[in-house]
Specification:
alpha+beta; 2 helices
Length: 77
């Protein structure tokens, strides 16, 4: 029985420490009555800005900045 416990501990340790590193972009699944669920960065952002409740963790991805292309005028000679 002790061998089984040691083997199970070693295998669970291998599973826990192998693979991809932990991600720090876990957000809050913010839910508000009458509105769709939104993923926010923090619990305080959910409560203060949206006025909802944090019910579950979610994968928060910050909105990307829009790139505006500059229009160049052709120089007339």
């Amino acid at each position: 029985m002790r061998k089984f416990f040691i083997l199970a501990s070693l295998l669970s340790g291998v599973v826990m420490f192998s693979g991809s590193p932990a991600r720090s972009d876990v957000g809050c699944g913010c839910v508000r009555f009458g509105a769709p669920a939104v993923c926010t960065a923090t619990i305080m952002e959910c409560n203060a800005k949206i006025g909802g409740l944090c019910l579950a963790p979610c994968n928060y991805q910050a909105p990307k900045r829009a790139r505006h292309s500059k229009k160049h005028k052709d120089k007339e000679a």
